[in-house]
TrEMBL record:
InterPro entries: NAD(P)-bd_dom_sf, NAD(P)-dependent_oxidoreduct, NmrA-like. Gene3D superfamilies: NAD(P)-binding Rossmann-like Domain (3.40.50.720). This is NmrA-like domain-containing protein. Residues 6-86 form the NmrA-like domain.
Length: 342
């Protein structure tokens, strides 16, 4: 590709999106990248100036999303790491990429962030029987209906890819953990906390005891945030070589699996050590607590969602994070959050 590679990134102050931007800024070919990011406020935009990153001010929740269409139309690559289920935003981006395709005659690259929640079951924390999904099982994944979480956005992306309008890659992380590294983290621009563990920690602090749903038997895959960002960079490198350099479609990010009860146990240990609760052993959430703490998302937390990222590994991705790493991080994350809420 002659000239600079124009890259538009959304979700850049988030846990995953910010870490992906860190990888772009420290990439061996960073000098050839012209990066533009979406931020919500002028204050946030100012923080990106010292990094040599251009900004567009807006939000996926704006009524007029033409700014997304325009940004995508002017980009060789779009990395979407904001709301995975916002169809209006995804449609606006796809419209822009279609314009880009028509203008250049080349299919632009879209790396969209989804998640492995869409392969989850309805275990309600009561069982650990698991059906593992590989990202190589294309027909099995494509059979999952649009009514399932994330699929409302994933399916249009897959269809646009099939039509040759884009090079479509969908990164579906499992539970993401760890401490982001890179310029955005160091300059306190991005969120450095994940979603699942903090929600469980806040609930434990409020109810004065760590907890799990049902019997806590359900299992999820998990992935380190920095290793997940490595996967994005690997996909980008391959995609820039040409449409045939890397398979299009889903890329699951995972390197281990854990049980909900073990996760809750580590949260309990951490909060007891800090003197914030007195009972180390977790118990089950009461039914009325589920909506209080997690709203309609609690069945997802209580599901079995076990993925296998075979496609990324075939491309050269080599995650090394282990179950021990995850459980150690759960404990440290609980302590970090507790210290911030004092």
């Amino acid at each position: 590709m002659s000239g600079p590679v124009t890259i538009f990134v959304t979700g850049v102050t988030g846990f995953i999106g910010g870490t992906v931007v860190n990888r772009l800024l420290t990439h061996p070919n960073a000098a050839s990248f012209k990066i533009t990011v979406l931020v919500r406020t002028s204050e946030k935009a100012e923080k990106f100036k010292p990094l040599g990153v251009d900004t567009i001010i807006g939000s996926y929740t704006d009524k007029d999303l033409k700014f997304l269409t325009d940004a995508a139309a002017n980009s060789d690559v779009v990395i979407a790491a904001a709301d995975a289920d916002n169809l209006a935003a995804a449609t606006a981006i796809l419209e822009g990429l279609k314009i880009r395709h028509e203008k250049t005659g080349k299919a632009p690259i879209l790396i969209h962030t989804s998640g492995t929640a869409f392969i989850g079951d309805n275990a309600a924390g009561l069982r650990s029987e698991e059906s593992t999904y590989s990202d190589l099982e294309v027909e099995r994944l494509n059979a999952i209906p649009v009514s399932v979480v994330h699929r409302n956005v994933d399916i249009p992306i897959i269809e646009a890819d099939k039509a040759g309008v884009i090079q479509g890659y969908i990164v579906a992380p499992s539970v993401v953990f760890g401490v982001p590294t890179g310029p955005l983290a160091e300059n306190k621009i991005q969120n450095v906390h994940s979603i699942i563990v903090p929600a469980l920690v806040r609930a434990a602090l409020d109810r004065k005891r760590a907890a799990y749903i049902g019997k806590g038997l359900n299992r999820w895959s998990a992935t380190n945030v920095n290793e997940t960002a490595d996967l994005y960079a690997l996909i980008l490198d391959a995609a820039l070589k040409g449409p045939a350099a890397a398979p299009h479609g889903y890329y699951f990010a995972e390197s281990l699996k854990y049980s909900a009860i073990d996760c809750a146990g580590k949260i309990g240990e951490a909060l007891v050590e800090l003197g914030l609760i007195t009972e180390k052993e977790p118990n089950a959430f009461f039914a009325e607590e589920l909506n209080k703490y997690f709203g309609p998302l609690w069945p997802i937390l209580a599901a079995n969602s076990v993925a296998k990222g075979d496609r990324g590994r075939a491309l050269g991705w080599k995650p090394v994070a282990t179950l021990d790493d995850f459980l150690a991080d759960v404990k440290e994350e609980a302590k970090r959050l507790a210290s911030e809420t004092k």
